[in-house]
Amino acid sequence: MSFFCQQVWEQVFAKVKRAVVFMDAACAESLHWACGGAERLLQAGALNVKEFSSFESGGPEQPKAVFVVSTLLKGRTVDIIRDIVSLSNFQYCVVFTAVSHAVHLQAHNAPSSAEAEGGGQVVFEQFEEKLCQWMGNMNYTAEVQHAALFLAPISPHLFVTPAFSLLFPLMNLDLAQINSARPEKKKFATLTDVDFSSLSLELQLEIRSLVSSLNNLFEYISVREECFAVGTLSRIIAGDLANYTQAKMRRKTAQHKASVIFVDRTLDLTGAVGHHGDNLAEKIISLLPKLPGHMNDVMVNMVELTSLQTDDASCSIIAPGCLAQPK
Fold this sequence. Notes:
Layout: H1 2-13, E1 20-23, H2 25-35, H3 38-43, E2 48-51, E3 64-69, H4 76-86, E4 92-97, H5 101-107, H6 115-119, H7 122-135, E5 141-146, E6 152-155, E7 158-160, H8 172-180, H9 201-220, E8 223-230, H10 232-243, H11 245-253, E9 256-263, H12 269-273, H13 280-287
Parallel strand pairs: 1-2, 1-3, 3-4, 4-5, 8-9
Antiparallel strand pairs: 6-7
């Protein structure tokens, strides 16, 4: 798994030389676990690494920017990129998105067959034109690429997906909201009746993005998967993966087999929220505060290991340690 993550991040490292890098929290967490964090970007030649925020910008002598985002190039993400570029003097912009071009086509209501029929990556090409407009010169350089930056390898046999940390199983309140937009005679009686097409466009895109990302992983390890699902949302995700066009093509040439089990954790709340203290890792994660901007790492106070002591609780002399960087 770590090899897959490192190979994907190499796409980014190859573009960051003499560039200011702007990265959102989900991609930062993936980099944190996969390659050691911002230090790896600086080693690759990046001038600086900044938060993906409208309040950030490049310096007057920094003509190149690299944006690394886990989201669709649409809505708020586009607004932030425009704000940063407009406040800077960039002549060369590279954007990496963890969302595939096929999902971007769906988000823009374009037929999914457009790319396969030789339409190229039209959404990315249009965004490159926008970048040049925001930079103020159509002769400047802009690139938009997809990179599957969705994994954070916690250990050799465990990974999490920070970009999908808010993807939550459907509840009865969701059923009421879905039914409110349907005719009286076509309302669903239970959550088990809900299908992919009845979900909101936002949730459809998030599921399709997860499916596309998983397909990239399975393609890398050359796996033909057999899916099992427990729960409504898990059933929808497994069904979408089974019917995903790129996944069908991959399965024809895959060399290995694997079973994939999707489970709605709301069906096992006792196990999900229980803290039994059976192991040291569980005690560490439950007791220590979260590392800012992260969903899966904690802050370890390193001051006690030094001679730099202070009574001021707000004074941070030493950066906190964390689980991803034990050294």
